[in-house]
Design a protein that fits this description.
The protein is α/β, with parallel strands linked by helices and 396 residues long. The chain has three domains: 193 residues, P-loop containing nucleotide triphosphate hydrolases (Rossmann fold); 66 residues, Helicase, Ruva Protein, domain 3, CATH 1.10.8.470; 75 residues, Beta-grasp domain (Ubiquitin-like (UB roll)), CATH 3.10.20.30. Helix content is 37%, strand content 19%.
């Protein structure tokens, strides 16, 4: 599962990416700083079951800090997108190609209004950030529409003559974008379209592409640079309907994570404060910078970067954390590690879905599962809940 970090140039995408992952990314104040996509690992928080079970966990695929499990999610920071990217403007073709397998998007918007439509620097407040909210989803829609339209007559004719469901024909056209059949069916359900696909107009294809984009490539808005944005801009952005908006300051999050990594402060991503270590060798400039960040945290509760990642993961993608074990009494794997792994699965997933996530052989040989909390034996269709600790029993 990849989450794409997207937006026009010079809005703070690479700063957000670096803050969320501490991966190196080129950051500068000019368009198209990012040419090749950067990939890195961010983390989302979840309560670690070791606290409830009164054991000490030994994580393998994730981290645990003071009872909070940090579960990895892969992030991809792509080249900046400008209007008409779907027709090749700017680095549009590369941008869209890099996003083929992204499950969701975090759209970074410059809430301060200090970058124009092309990503060029302008005076703060000279550009209205609300103009950027819809253009990116529009570009994705036109991109998908173009792929659908290319050879549509032939695909529609084949579907009509063979009796194949049109949703399958649409899926075949978009299969290279990491979109599955279930997403196509859900997106197209209830759309008012002509009965014969060969009579579909450009407007009909646009309607189909828009529904699929919303279902298969959902998007959250990260209103960045809120330390410099006017209250009016922030209020207008957060008041938008039918879109999730999270105010953030990626630059301050990057400062905190670098300071924590250098051993100068104690800080857990997403916290509303941090602690300067007693022996931290800080100079006056560094102390002042940290106090500026602390003031921001007191006013906003957090920098918003972690909240943005978790909103995208838990609300946009509807994922839940689940903990598989091989011994439901001691909560261990075969090496004796306690609560070793945390997996993110779509809400509504079942015990056999977890088995498949762990290893295909477990799903193929599935016999039953055991809920480690209740010790209840459950079947393959048992629906999982967030935080479940599950043992899978399978034929070997």
């Amino acid at each position: 599962m990849d989450i794409g970090i997207v937006g026009k140039p010079n809005v703070g995408k690479s700063t957000f990416f670096s803050a969320a992952t501490l991966a190196e990314a080129e950051i500068a104040s000019y368009p198209f700083t990012t040419i090749d996509a950067n990939k890195g690992m961010g983390y989302v928080r979840a309560p670690c079951p070791h606290v409830e079970f009164k054991v000490q966990c030994t994580p393998r695929n994730s981290l645990c800090e003071d009872g909070t499990r940090l579960i990895p999610v892969e992030l991809i920071d792509v080249a900046g997108l400008v209007p008409d990217a779907h027709s090749g403007k700017g680095l549009g073709n590369k941008f869209l190609d890099d996003l083929r397998h992204a499950s969701a998007m975090i759209h970074i918007v410059d809430a301060s209004g200090s970058t124009d439509a092309e990503g060029n620097p302008v005076g703060e407040g000279e550009y209205d950030p609300l103009q950027d909210v819809e253009f990116l989803s529009d570009e994705l829609i036109y991109w998908m529409q173009g792929i659908l339209a290319n050879g549509w007559d032939r695909a529609a004719r084949t579907a009509e003559t063979t009796g194949v469901k049109i949703e399958l024909a649409v899926h075949e056209r978009l299969t290279g974008l990491g979109i599955n059949e279930h997403q196509i069916w859900r997106a197209m359900h209830g759309l008012d379209l002509p009965e014969k696909p060969r009579s579909w107009t450009e407007q009909d294809l646009h309607k189909v592409a828009a529904a699929i984009q919303k279902e298969a490539k959902p998007m959250i808005i990260a209103a960045n640079k809120t330390d410099r944005a006017s209250k009016d801009n922030i209020q207008r952005l957060t008041a938008l309907k039918d879109v999730m908006v999270v105010p953030i300051c990626a630059e301050y999050e990057l400062v905190l994570r670098k300071a924590a990594k250098a051993g100068l402060i104690e800080y857990v991503p997403g916290d509303e404060d941090f602690k300067i270590k007693e022996d931290a060798p800080l100079n006056k400039a560094q102390e002042h910078a940290l106090e500026v960040v602390r003031k921001y945290l007191k006013e906003h509760d957090s920098t918003g970067v972690q909240k943005c990642l978790e909103t995208a993961t838990y609300e946009l993608l509807n994922l839940i954390p689940v903990y598989p074990v091989e011994d439901d009494t001691h909560l261990t794997d075969k090496e004796g590690r306690v609560l070793p792994d945390a997996h993110l699965l779509p809400k509504g997933s079942t015990a056999i879905d977890l088995a498949a996530k762990v290893h295909t052989d477990l799903a193929e040989g599935f016999i039953r599962a055991v809920d480690a909390r209740t010790k209840r034996v459950v079947g393959h269709d048992h629906e999982l809940k967030a935080g479940d600790v599950i043992r899978i029993v399978a034929k070997t």
